[in-house]
Amino acid sequence: MSSRHHIDDFMRGRIIGKIEEGRKITDVAREFDIARSVVSRLWKSFKTTGMCSRRHGGGRVRSTTPAEDRYIVLSAKRNRHTTAQQMANQFLAASGKQHRTARLQWCREHHNWTEQDWACVLFSDESWFSLSSNCRRQLIWRESGTAYRPENIQEKDRYPTCSIMVWAGIMINGHTRLHVVANGTMTGQRYIDEVLLLHVRLFRGAAGDKFVFMDDNATCHRTLAVQDCLDSKCIKRLVWPARSPDLNPIENVWDALGRQVAGRNYPPTNKNTLIRAFTEEWDKLPQQLLDNVVQSMVRRVECCITLHGGHIPY
């Protein structure tokens, strides 16, 4: 067990993110090589204060706000393989004046949108889910004290497959099927063939001319071929501010989906059962949950304006 006494804020964000996705405190402590009691106190503090940064006494003033803490946690959950340094670089890029100004401008442009306006938007996103955050380690779901029983020991391939990428979209009174991205690589052409034509086009046809499609600024989403496809199918796209997962309501749905899978009586143990579990739990999500997070868009926009384009606690 490591003798390290100080855990930086980015490490704290990664730890909180793993617990929120359903990992056990003991497993997280073992993965980061720190005492279980430290992880337990950090989790209790986060649930009480909503912050993952260390409380400073008479020393250095906190460098992040509670909303920024939440952004760090959210970013860690979006990409479980990100290192602390990569997370720091992303956070700094997403916290600069230019980025806040762009977010503030976007929110002001949409400040007059009502719940009825947002109800016409299909919010979409890709997300990674895995049996463990590190594919060199297999997550074994077991009772306490049974780690070395034969049924809890599994031989490993050198390069095990334990992660999946999924795509989905949500809107008021509806949602797409959960689409599993084979091999976990989304390209512009695959985005057209597997997402836009198979899923988004159908929602455009059902919703009519008021339909608006939201996706983020990932490279595969912004190719000329993708835009040509949207134009040819008369699909209006919602301009989206960069590095703004906190504004996208589907992020909250990913959280709920991860908790549902982690809470299954027989959690997944390999890639096939992982896919089956997420597909089944996605189909079970209550539409009211999806409606509630979409209806929060009015409040999200108002909150972001109040914070002058800063990260919001969603």
UniProtKB/TrEMBL annotation:
InterPro entries: Homeodomain-like_sf, RNaseH_sf, Tc1-like_DDE_dom, WH-like_DNA-bd_sf. Pfam families: DDE_3. Residues 121-267 form the Tc1-like transposase DDE domain. GO terms for molecular function: nucleic acid binding. Its main location: nucleus. It is found in: Nucleus. One of its GO terms (cellular component) is nucleus. This is Transposable element Tcb2 transposase. It comes from Trichonephila clavipes (Golden silk orbweaver). The lineage of its organism: Eukaryota, Metazoa, Ecdysozoa, Arthropoda, Chelicerata.
